[in-house]
Amino acid sequence: MAARILNGNEIAADLRAEVAEGVTSLVASGGPQPGLAAVLVGDDAASAVYVRNKGRACSEAGMHSETFHLPADTGQADLMDLIAGLNADNRFHGILVQLPLPDQIDEATIIESIAPAKDVDGLHPISQGRMLQGQPTFLPCTPAGVQQVLLRSGYDPAGKHVVIVGRSNIVGKPLAALLMQRNPGGNATVTVCHTRTRDLPDITRQADILVAAMGVPGAVTADMVREGAVVIDVGINRVGYRLVGDVDYDAVAAKAEAITPVPGGIGPMTIALLLSNTLDAARRTVSV
Ligand code: NDP
């Protein structure tokens, strides 16, 4: 039987509409218009598209957004100066630094220079540490997007075996932390795999929910998937002019119960969660 397609565009549109309502009521109650500062360094075409889409989504949700575009040869100190200014600028409740950054800039240092109260990407070590401990914080957008797709499609991860392939700081690791929490939306049994994992297919076949976050086109093949599994494809890979995921889509869709497409799966969710975090950041400035 063909898999149910989990339409990230539709789920993200619902979430964005909820955020837009939240913005309207925040402003109506005398709160600030939420503002997002997006920082783009260099001329990477994909990054420029992501930043443009995020800016457009902000205005559609009634938020203010501005993009700060710096040249590719910007030094670390200049970028830190810009971020220090944005940290102090109360028009902006959230700061997003589009990754990857050029080689001369140390990403970890830049992420740590963002004020945790404005870390709407949820990548600051303080945000991630709080998440690991199950405390309220800004959740990283892509992992939170995966969680929302599951919950809003009726696949509560509680009690399920979730296998995540990939252990990056922006996807695999935080997703594992999120889904294992003793909190609603968590309570999964999580296995994290990577390039040093032995007999990967043997482990992925044990997944009730399989998440591919590897950055390798078509790496998850049908023999790696149990009949009836839910498959979440986080990968976004450019192959010629096409965008493809990490999952061999047609063959896996013939076996899975449900699957996210690429494009139109987790990508739009990531943007919706960024908006949701920015609204939360603005709310916090009035509720404390
Ligand atoms: P990274 O390159 O940082 O991490 C990839 C991870 O996958 C690593 O942990 C690596 O293992 C593991 N891996 C790679 N190949 C294999 C393999 N053959 N077998 C087992 N494990 C493997 O990537 P990201 O996490 O940043 O991104 C992953 C994908 O998700 C990319 O396609 C990216 O474009 C996409 N992405 C999509 C987003 C969205 O909004 N939908 C947002 C962010 C990313 P090891 O650690 O051992 O090297």
From TrEMBL:
<comment type="subunit">
    <text>Homodimer.</text>
</comment>
<dbReference type="GO" id="GO:0006164">
    <property type="term" value="P:purine nucleotide biosynthetic process"/>
</dbReference>
<keyword id="KW-0658">Purine biosynthesis</keyword>
<dbReference type="InterPro" id="IPR000672">
    <property type="entry name" value="THF_DH/CycHdrlase"/>
</dbReference>
<dbReference type="GO" id="GO:0004488">
    <property type="term" value="F:methylenetetrahydrofolate dehydrogenase (NADP+) activity"/>
</dbReference>
<dbReference type="InterPro" id="IPR020867">
    <property type="entry name" value="THF_DH/CycHdrlase_CS"/>
</dbReference>
<dbReference type="GO" id="GO:0004477">
    <property type="term" value="F:methenyltetrahydrofolate cyclohydrolase activity"/>
</dbReference>
<dbReference type="InterPro" id="IPR020631">
    <property type="entry name" value="THF_DH/CycHdrlase_NAD-bd_dom"/>
</dbReference>
<dbReference type="Pfam" id="PF02882">
    <property type="entry name" value="THF_DHG_CYH_C"/>
</dbReference>
<feature type="domain" description="Tetrahydrofolate dehydrogenase/cyclohydrolase catalytic">
    <location>
        <begin position="6"/>
        <end position="121"/>
    </location>
</feature>
<feature type="domain" description="Tetrahydrofolate dehydrogenase/cyclohydrolase NAD(P)-binding">
    <location>
        <begin position="140"/>
        <end position="284"/>
    </location>
</feature>
<dbReference type="GO" id="GO:0000105">
    <property type="term" value="P:L-histidine biosynthetic process"/>
</dbReference>
<dbReference type="GO" id="GO:0005829">
    <property type="term" value="C:cytosol"/>
</dbReference>
<keyword id="KW-0554">One-carbon metabolism</keyword>
<dbReference type="InterPro" id="IPR020630">
    <property type="entry name" value="THF_DH/CycHdrlase_cat_dom"/>
</dbReference>
<keyword id="KW-0521">NADP</keyword>
<keyword id="KW-0511">Multifunctional enzyme</keyword>
<dbReference type="InterPro" id="IPR046346">
    <property type="entry name" value="Aminoacid_DH-like_N_sf"/>
</dbReference>
<dbReference type="Pfam" id="PF00763">
    <property type="entry name" value="THF_DHG_CYH"/>
</dbReference>
<comment type="pathway">
    <text>One-carbon metabolism; tetrahydrofolate interconversion.</text>
</comment>
<keyword id="KW-0028">Amino-acid biosynthesis</keyword>
<keyword id="KW-0368">Histidine biosynthesis</keyword>
<keyword id="KW-0378">Hydrolase</keyword>
<dbReference type="GO" id="GO:0035999">
    <property type="term" value="P:tetrahydrofolate interconversion"/>
</dbReference>
<keyword id="KW-0486">Methionine biosynthesis</keyword>
<protein>
    <submittedName>
        <fullName>Bifunctional protein FolD</fullName>
    </submittedName>
</protein>
<dbReference type="InterPro" id="IPR036291">
    <property type="entry name" value="NAD(P)-bd_dom_sf"/>
</dbReference>
<keyword id="KW-0560">Oxidoreductase</keyword>
<dbReference type="GO" id="GO:0009086">
    <property type="term" value="P:methionine biosynthetic process"/>
</dbReference>
